[in-house]
Design a protein that fits this description.
It is built from 7 helices and 7 strands; from the N terminus they run βαββαββααββααα. The protein is α+β, with helices and mostly antiparallel strands and 187 residues long.
Length: 187
């Protein structure tokens, strides 16, 4: 019997869901998500079983957007990472990262967390951690987000830009539509 892989990722939301929306999200299949607000806005952190990155990310977006008033505006926490993210990217254990972060192992000077979620999860700036890993531990890691998260983020941002373009075309005064050769209705 083969096991279904589990994918950990964060989606950025247009707003923090209220209590009624949180209940609706869990009913819609988001019982593997945690919703919070941080310095980069509202976010949903997922630990989702799926057959692929695309399926994990796409199904979470669809589940969230079944709840009226909620829109997924991006994927990834920009440069914010958890201890588990750091461990995976650095090829180390979560315990090793915890010991570095608390100063109990390594040369010290591990970056201070950027913020802490209401549930107590700490987040660090990935570029700061990547620099510390290189300088203090001799570990070279990329400082960009995983390619699958990048694709999801680019698609979600493009979708929002297309929706905004349709709205602007529909609202533009006739003189501007004529001068800029805009059609009122966009297919």
């Amino acid at each position: 019997m083969s096991q279904v892989p589990v994918f950990d990722f964060t989606l950025r939301l247009s707003r923090m869901p209220d209590d009624g929306q949180i209940e609706a999200l869990y009913e819609a299949g988001c019982d593997d998500g945690t919703f919070s607000v941080g310095p980069e806005g509202a976010a949903a952190e997922f630990h989702r079983e799926a057959t692929s990155w695309a399926h994990a990310l796409g199904s979470a977006v669809r589940d969230i957007e079944t709840v009226p008033g909620l829109v997924v505006v991006g994927a990834g926490q920009d440069d914010q990472v958890t201890m588990l993210d750091i461990a995976r990217r650095a090829g180390r254990t979560r315990e090793a990262v915890r010991l570095w972060a608390t100063g109990k192992r390594g040369p010290g000077g591990f970056p201070v967390p950027s913020w802490t979620s209401p549930g107590g999860e700490r987040f660090w700036s990935w570029p700061e951690v990547a620099r510390w890993l290189r300088d203090a531990r001799g570990v070279t890691v990329g400082d960009e987000m995983p390619e699958e998260i990048w694709w999801a983020d680019a698609i979600l941002k493009t979708r929002l830009a297309e929706e905004e373009a349709r709205r602007l075309r529909a609202e533009a005064p006739a003189a501007f539509r004529r001068e800029f050769k805009l059609r009122r209705k966009v297919a």
